[in-house]
Specification:
With 418 residues, the protein is of the alpha/beta class. The protein has 2 domains: 111 residues, no CATH class; 288 residues, TIM Barrel. Helix 1 packs across helix 3 and helix 2 packs across helix 5. It is elongated. The two termini are 40 Å apart. It binds iron/sulfur cluster. The site of iron/sulfur cluster (SF4) has 12 residues, from helix 4.
Length: 418
């Protein structure tokens, strides 16, 4: 394992900078570098400074900051003059609607100008939206262009009865190189900032506020602790988007030190899922070559992670015909899960990408495997495949490569996002 970056909840720890000029504006006390957990992957830093980059000058990234932190910054900047009192309203406008318009809150020109020096709104542009009609509603895959020109995707999934879930990306590309995943082919280009992660939710809210958020898009979330933990703070901030912790699920390849960090967070209701896919170390190394922890280590980390008995740990199994679809595989999953407490196994039929590892399993094969798991005493959910026609299904996100290649599916033209 490479050097694990230090993390602290910097969004809550602004302090004064005592230099001249911009000295009245608060800066972050944390000197965290934001480096990737994967040394050797050059160029993973976000291009633009954020409030997580250490001693940066304002303006503060509104989407990467909690409302209380913004208020503290404003109180410092305005000193005893009027203007700071709108901090919570401005923050709420930014995270829920992607708007930043200080004059709309009755501020005069000077106060509005001060606000523009304190804070900035950097919303990615939605450069492409692909749609697929599913039995539960319209699925939307959004391609977002970030400030440095790189692109990521998020998928807004209809869940039926008017509910929806948003699959979020945490990195541009991914270092884990899972062989069944399009993102893994790209390698890691850089981590997303907390604001860039939150922005995916903000943009989705313009169509429909997602009921649940799953960190299962591009990237291994626990390889980007600065982005992930910062975004979690903002997403659950009761003054802003106000998501309950049990509405969020982190999906990991089994990042052992990351699981320890999550445990230290102490959020007992936070959802967690393991992307397992192979229940013996040899096959897992073949399928997920950059996942360096053994199944034994991951199992121990998950046992230690459990903070409440009724947590239903998700165990994801991408079903690959001819590779991991036998009864022996099902029994191996049951053995792996035995010490983990309450578990729900999600069987995800493989979605072939640009260089398929194998074919997609048919319904009979999937049902047979689900039956073996149930026979072994496991609770199982068979995932309904959504988004395959627009390369939006599990393992198919590629940050725009599909759009560039002109894949099939309904599309909306490019439109400015703010
Ligand atoms: S499956 Fe997840 S961890 Fe593996 S390469 Fe794809 S995005 Fe990365």
């Amino acid at each position: 394992m490479g050097r694990w970056p230090e993390f602290s909840f910097a969004v809550q720890s602004f302090e004064l900078r005592s230099t001249s000029g911009a000295g009245r504006f608060p800066t972050q006390s944390n000197s965290h570098s934001g480096r990737s957990a994967n040394p050797g992957h050059a160029g993973v830093e976000p291009a633009a400074p954020t409030c997580f980059d250490g001693f940066v000058t304002p303006p503060i990234d509104l989407l990467g900051t909690t409302a209380p932190a913004l208020l503290r910054a404003a109180v410092t900047a305005f000193e005893n003059t009027k203007g700071a009192h709108v901090a919570h309203r401005l923050h709420r406008d930014a995270v829920t609607r992607g708007e930043f318009a200080p004059p709309s809150h009755g501020l005069g020109p000077r106060a509005a100008d001060t606000w523009r020096q304190i804070a900035r709104l950097e919303l990615p542009r939605v450069v492409d939206t692909a749609f697929e009609d599913t039995p539960t509603g319209k699925l939307r895959k959004r391609l977002l262009r970030l400030g440095d020109g790189r692109t990521v995707e998020s998928v807004h999934l209809p869940m039926g009865r008017g509910r929806s879930s948003l699959c979020l990306s945490t990195q541009v590309g991914c270092a884990r190189a899972c062989t069944f995943c399009e993102t893994g082919r790209e390698g890691l280009l850089r981590n997303l900032t907390p604001g860039e992660i939150v922005a995916q939710v903000t943009l989705a809210c313009r169509d429909q506020r997602p009921d649940t958020l799953v960190f299962m898009g591009m990237g291994e979330p626990l390889d980007n602790p600065t982005g992930l933990f910062g975004a979690l703070e903002v997403l659950t901030d009761p003054h802003g988007l106000a998501y309950a912790r049990d509405r969020l699920t982190i999906c990991t390849v089994g990042h052992v030190p990351g699981l320890q960090r999550l445990r230290e967070l102490g959020w007992k209701r936070l959802g967690l899922a393991l992307s397992l896919n192979a229940a013996d170390d040899g096959l897992r190394r073949e399928l997920m070559p950059q996942t360096r922890w053994s199944l034994g280590e991951i199992q121990r980390a998950l046992v230690a992670y459990r903070q409440r008995k009724n947590l239903a740990l998700g165990v994801h199994w991408c079903l690959l015909p001819g590779i991991n679809d036998t009864q022996r595989d099902a029994e191996a999953i049951a053995r792996f899960c035995a010490p983990l407490g309450r578990v729900l196994v999600h069987v995800i039929p493989y979605n072939p990408g640009s260089e398929p590892l194998t074919r997609a399993p048919n319904v009979t094969e999937t049902e047979r495997f689900v039956g073996w798991l149930r026979d072994a005493g496991l609770a199982v959910r068979r995932r309904v495949t959504k988004g395959r026609s627009v390369m939006a299904a599990c393992g198919q996100l590629a940050g725009g490569a599909a759009a560039a290649a002109g894949k099939a599916g309904d599309r909306a033209p490019e439109r400015p996002s703010s």
